[in-house]
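TICKET: design request
STATUS: open
ATTACHED STRUCTURE:
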């Protein structure tokens, strides 16, 4: 019995020691994440950010001629919710490990690998590579801690940047936003309730600057007006005609929109100024 109690005491002491030894401390290379929506596509980079700490990084800590995890600890991961183009190369939607192969101070390659469970390079297999993207590093202001960032964001384009020490590389991103937007529109309209006039007007409005789709947009706005005749859908229809230089029809529809707006004063006041300005302009250009 005495021996049993001694063993039990020892086990409890070890358990207590183990529990108390688990201290949460800051990581030398803390985890970080950046996310950006470009068009309708979400792009996320999960990584651990090492610091230079007075060391020579490229050509030293990160040697030329060897694959680098583009971070620390686990492999850096990049996720695309849709297929897109990186440096003009098509990359399927998904999550990939993100590596860099620095050949020299003037030529690097970004390597995407489908194995997302790697610790650094441990277990890396080039047979799982899905893309090799040539990038040219540039000199930049000193960056103590490695950082991914997005810049130059537009409706369907942007840039992904990686900066550390005095070097920076950039990947050009392009998404097929129109293709996805049209798919979303077709899906939404197929599920629209019979009394939902607004969704038809919203989809027609999206097509205003896209003249190749104006005939379809006209069908949608007429459908909206048939469900419910409002100042808003007449205003969208007026703009469709104005985009095609048919100002007589546009001004007539704008006048109708202003009249209908009197029965919806709270909603109309947001658009009143632009509608009335357009009417005064378009009626002179009939």
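STATUS: resolved
RESOLUTION: sequence designed for all positions
ATTACHED SEQUENCE:
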């Amino acid at each position: 019995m005495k021996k049993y109690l001694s063993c039990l005491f020892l086990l409890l002491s070890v358990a207590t020691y183990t529990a108390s030894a688990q201290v949460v401390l800051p990581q030398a290379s803390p985890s970080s994440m950046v996310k950006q929506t470009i068009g309708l596509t979400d792009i996320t980079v999960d990584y651990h950010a090492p610091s230079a700490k007075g060391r020579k990084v490229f050509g030293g800590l990160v040697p030329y001629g060897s694959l680098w995890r583009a971070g620390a600890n686990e492999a850096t991961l990049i996720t695309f919710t849709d297929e897109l183009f990186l440096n003009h190369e098509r990359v399927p939607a998904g999550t990939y490990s993100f590596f860099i192969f620095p050949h020299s101070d003037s030529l690097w390659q970004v390597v995407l690998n489908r194995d997302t469970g790697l610790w650094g390079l441990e277990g890396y297999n080039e047979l799982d590579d899905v893309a090799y993207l040539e990038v040219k590093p540039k000199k930049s202001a000193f960056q103590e801690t490695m950082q991914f960032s997005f810049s130059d964001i537009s409706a369907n384009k942007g840039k992904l940047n990686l900066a550390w020490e005095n070097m920076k590389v950039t990947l050009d991103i392009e998404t097929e936003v129109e293709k996805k937007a049209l798919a979303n529109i077709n899906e939404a309209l197929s599920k629209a309730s019979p009394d939902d006039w607004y969704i038809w007007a919203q989809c027609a409005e999206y097509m205003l600057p896209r003249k190749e789709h104006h005939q379809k947009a006209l069908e949608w706005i007429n459908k909206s007006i048939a469900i419910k005749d409002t100042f808003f859908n007449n205003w969208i229809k007026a703009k469709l005609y104005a985009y095609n230089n048919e100002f007589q029809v546009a001004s007539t529809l704008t006048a109708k929109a202003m009249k209908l707006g009197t029965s919806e004063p709270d909603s109309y006041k947001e658009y009143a100024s632009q509608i009335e300005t357009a009417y005064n302009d378009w009626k002179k250009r009939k």
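CLOSING REMARK: The helical segments are 2-21, 177-190, 197-206, 214-227, 231-243, 247-261, 265-268, 272-282. The longest strand covers residues 157-175.
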